[in-house]
Batch of 3 targets.
Target 1
Amino acid sequence: MRQNSLFRWIPAAISLWFCGGLFAVFGVFNFWLSELSARGALPHSVGGGTDNPRSLLHGAVENGAVAAFCILGWYFLRRRIPGSLPGGTLAVTVALLITVGRWLHWQLVGANQLPWLEPMLVWPFFLYAIVYGYRESKASVAE
């Protein structure tokens, strides 16, 4: 690890734990909301339709997967052996692709009420960790 580099381990680790924790909390929250919606306790689920609980449950699974990939990426990047650095970078890239796919889906459907939120407040954390993992894996190969 180069000392004068912009990309360092501590900010990358903090960003991965922050994103992992944030998506885990939202995954649990989505699961709780899907349970409430299935019982008809939410205003949008009064009609008894299954679309709202299903989409909330799908969001809970996606959030859980993103959280798992963030923590997995942190674990692999922390080990700092040559095979784990690309693996950690790949795990964080998969987490980013899940969030991009979900964001794009809700943009196309027209139901994204804060379209700037994820690209401005979430994706930079993922991109930082990806660039860190890529640079460190290239540096470890060069050594």
Target 2
Amino acid sequence: MYDIEQRLFDYQKAGIEKLREGIRLGHRSQLLYAPTGAGKTEMAIALMEYSRQLGSRSAMILDRIVLCNQTSDRLDKYGIDHGVMQAGHWRYRPHERIQVCSAQTLEKRGNFPGLQLLIVDEAHQTREKTKEFIKNNPHVKVIGLTATPFTKGLGNVYSHVVNTVTTEQLVLSKNLVPLRVFLAKEIDMTGAKKIAGEWSDREVTERGIKITGDVVTEWVKKTHEIFGGPKKTIVFCASVAHGADLASKFNEAGYNFVPISYKDSDEYKKSVFEDFARPDTDIHGLIAVDILTKGFDVSDVMIGVSARPFSKSLSSHIQQMGRVMRSHPDKEFALWLDFSGNYLRFKSDWDSVYCEGAGELDDGREKPKPEPTEREKKESKCPKCGYFWGNADVCSHCGHVRVRKNQILERNGELIELGMTSHEELNERREFYSELIGYAQLMNYKPGWAYHQFKKKYGMEPKKMNPQPLPPSQKTLNWIKKQLIAFRKARAA
């Protein structure tokens, strides 16, 4: 017997209660934000079971048949009666109050008699036909599930966003593991053609293939250096051709990497996933473009390789990292090898999402990001091992000490080893920036002065902060004084 209260964590129960409150406030269509690993499917099952107990009819829409089967298997595991709305499916039971349905099937049917609750998986990629269904059926309550609610236009479909838990909270509670990030040789996208603001697959493929050898060499080096040998890996590539080239080079080096793509049958992909999920599998890694970002749940994957640069897709970047952050017995962290430049490109937005969760819908995050300068890239990683050390002076991986010239550094709190900013540190940065602005106003400095001082201290732009001026604290005044002293000494030298 499925017991909802027994199955859910407190934050999941709280999220469902927030959805109920949203309905009471008149929100027919709501977005439920939860990071990868937070249990969105568990919450969806609980919502459908609550609906069934009230005598209502509900359906969960997924965008691939394989995901429908996975969800059906989960419902079976809990002994929950349901049907799969797909012609010819062995579990076609249209009379059941709980239905699992592919988006394509919904499009073909065009209607869903008696439906009262619709749950949309991966709502940040809601298909146009599904949007039309939502619009044309105002009597149906809609809940979209997503870990990345940043897609333009979501505010036209959903009127309310509910936050359940942050990635930081899941890491602290050990429901997710932190990342150890290495910034490797980057795919050069200078001057590359863009389509709708994103680098074209063809450009990324051609440029990515040029550093395939570096990807393999660095993976071999790091997997032996950190783990003592190969560990399960997933690689995110730009295209089918790029994936095939990577697999070939890995195999030439003696490692079994399997490329998978939309060209492969569902049966083949299922068999590969099942093989890879076995503890004793002889597959060292999987390579794919975006298949691994949906419905892929192999928790003992230890390494993620980012080899597909994104100009604006924060959603894809976060989805990819989430695939390797799932917890597993004896898994203390996951390794992230960045050949794409995405980690630095989206660092400010990622820090905000990591600590605070989702903001308002259509908040403008999904737009082309300015490229970090060569100096910023150089200062962000250890020159000896490539470890992302942010604003630290000592590399926590190899112990290399950074030498700073003409700059005095004041440390703030505990160093974050893994390149992720804590909630406390994020608030501290906001307060510091507000005090810089307050000081600039007192001294009649130009508006850009506070911006450049913040960037000097933290090595990044003060994005998404929108601070109000504050009187500078003594701590901030001391920091400013030290900068002035260092500046004068540099000029006198």
Target 3
Amino acid sequence: MPSPEILNEIEQLHGVSDRLDALAEQHSPVSDGLAKISTSVRNIAILLEVMVRIKIAPLPGDLGQANS
């Protein structure tokens, strides 16, 4: 099972992305840039979650476990 600290960081990254989206809606001069950064942060959070689930908590019968 992934550590609570890593899962907390993933949650924090999602929160940062949400806050950047809200700021983008409020500040039209920089909205495009903020939206792109928000998307990047969200994608990083998703990739981190996938990596953690694959590396730390592989599914039973996963081929990667047999090689460990």
